[in-house]
Amino acid sequence: MEFTKTLIKGKLIKRYKRFFVDIKIDKEIITAHCPNTGSMRGLLDENNEVFISKNNNPKRKLKYTLEIIKVKKNLVGVNTHFANKIAYHGLSNNLVKEVSSSESIKPEVFFDKETRFDFLVEKNKQKTFVEVKNVTLFRDEKIAEFPDSITTRGSKHLKALINAIKKGYKSYLLFLVQIQGVEKFKIAKDIDKEYYENYLLAKKAGVIFLAYRCKINLKEIKIEKKIKIINN
C-alpha cells in the first residue's frame, strides 16, 4: 500500500471524540481525522511524532488524516482502513507463505447472515477464510500484542472461524502487525481474558493463527516478514 502524496510531519497534541486528533505542524495547530476507532493504547502520548496525509477534496470537512505515529523509535501504522488493502497486497503477491499461489482472492465474503470474513481464498478446490486483525499495541519494545481493549467482535469472529472449519473450510486469522521492529507477537490476555480463552479454543479446533509484521516507511506499508506467536 503506497502513499500517493508526501506525508507531513507534526507533533501530537491530543485525540478526542474518537475521530479527531489535534496536531501541531511548525507553529500551527490543525485538526485531523483519526481513522482508528480503537483505544490506540500506548500511542497517544502528547508530543509523539506523527505523520499525516492531506486531501484537497472540497467535500471533506477535515483535510488531514493521521497515518503513522512514532513511539519508542518505532513507526506504527494507525489507519485501520488500510489493513485489508495491505493484507490483499500480501495475499496477491504471495507474501503470506501459508496462503500463497491462490487461484482466487475474494474480499468481504459472508459466511452466514451475521458474519462476514475479510477474505475467501480458493486453491485446488479448497476454500479458506482469512480474517485480518490490525495490531498496534506493544508494551514491550520487541513484542506486539492484540487486542488493545476488550473485543466482543473479535471473540465472535473466532467462534465463526471454528464453525467454518466444521463446514469444510480452512480458517486463518492473520494478525497484521503495523509496528516497525517487533520480533514476536502474543495475545494480551490481561486485557481481554475471554478473547484469550476463545483463541485457545479456536487453536484447538484447527484455526491457524499467523502474525506478520509490516515494513513501514513514509512511502509505503506492506507485509515484510512472519514473526513468532509466543502464547501457549
Describe the 3D structure.
This protein has 3 helices and 16 strands. The protein is α+β, with helices and mostly antiparallel strands and 232 residues long. The strands form 3 sheets. Strands 3-2-1-4-5-6 form a 6-stranded antiparallel β-sheet, with no helix packed on it. Helix 2 packs parallel to helix 3 (193-205). It is globular, with a radius of gyration of 18 Å.
List the helices and strands and how they pair.
Layout: E1 8-16, E2 20-25, E3 28-33, E4 49-54, E5 64-71, E6 74-77, H1 83-92, E7 104-110, E8 116-123, E9 126-135, E10 137-140, E11 143-146, H2 152-166, E12 170-177, E13 184-187, H3 193-205, E14 208-216, E15 221-226, E16 228-229
Parallel strand pairs: 9-12, 11-13, 12-14, 13-16
Antiparallel strand pairs: 1-2, 1-4, 2-3, 4-5, 5-6, 7-8, 8-9, 10-11, 14-15
Notable features of this structure?
six-stranded mixed beta sheet; Trna Endonuclease, Chain: A, domain 1; single chain; OB fold (Dihydrolipoamide Acetyltransferase, E2P); six-stranded antiparallel beta sheet; alpha+beta; 3 helices; 2 domains; 232 residues
Short description:
By secondary structure, the chain is an alpha+beta fold. The protein has helices spanning 83-92, 152-166, 193-205; strands at residues 8-16, 20-25, 28-33, 49-54, 64-71, 74-77, 104-110, 116-123, 126-135, 137-140, 143-146, 170-177, 184-187, 208-216, 221-226, 228-229.
